[in-house]
Amino acid sequence: MRKVAIPGSFDPLTNGHTDIIQRASTLFDEVVVVVAQNTTKACWFSLEERCTFVKESIQSFANVSVDVCQGLLITYCQSNNIKALLRGIRTFSDYEYESSMSRLNQELYPELETLFMMSDKLVAHINSNMVKEFARFEGELSGWVPKHVEIAIINRIKQETS
Ligand code: PNS
């Protein structure tokens, strides 16, 4: 049974994330999208909201599920018998960040392997921070995020400004 976890903060889920999830679903028997806390980021959306973004986007994939990790990712992986993580790579700076994160995780949990998947060139420019910045200036988000995420972002900005 080839099982992999795709961890991330998904604040919000973008078409870059869904591309990685879809491609992973064809390579692994089971894919768990793990919505985690990144304490270096101030999130716009709660863990529950971010989970819902994922849930609504994975309905057509029978082998993909979503879960929440409230603490350390390695603790989550150890408790759920997960030995492989998959992270998307868009740029060289992604690689620098991801390589130290994967070494740190492996030092703490030696059986855990981190695999990297290159982002598709059509979505490699998308990142969650840019989506939020663009949305604040009423930029067009279709093509960057799924429709239901676009609606949540617009609602969030409306609430903020009302
Ligand atoms: O989508 P992101 O923000 O790049 O995802 C980063 C994430 C959530 C995978 C990473 O911050 C993480 O693993 N967080 C869980 C807490 C943890 O294990 N941190 C490790 C460093 S101490």
Walk me through the topology.
Layout (H helix, E strand, L loop, with lengths): L2 E6 L6 H13 L2 E7 L10 H11 L6 E6 L3 H7 L4 E6 L2 H17 L4 E6 L9 H9 L10 H15 L1
Parallel strand pairs: 1-2, 2-3, 4-5
This protein binds 4'-phosphopantetheine.
What does this structure look like?
By secondary structure, this protein is an alpha/beta fold. It has a single domain, classed as Rossmann fold, CATH 3.40.50.620. The strands form 2 sheets. A 3-stranded parallel beta sheet has the order 1-2-3, with helices on both faces. The protein has a two-stranded parallel ribbon with strand order 4-5. α4 links the parallel β4 and β5. The mean pLDDT is 96. Bound molecules: 4'-phosphopantetheine. The site of 4'-phosphopantetheine has 9 residues, from β1.
Provide the structure class: alpha/beta
CATH topology (level 3) name? Rossmann fold
Small-molecule binders: 4'-phosphopantetheine
Distance between the termini: 50 Å
> What's the number of domains?
1
Q: How many E-type strands?
A: 5
Let me know the average pLDDT: 96
Largest sheet report: 3 strands, parallel
CATH class category name: Alpha Beta
How big a fraction of the residues is strand? Answer: 15-25%
Name the strands of the widest sheet in spatial order.
Answer: 1-2-3
Helix content: 40-55%
Silhouette: globular
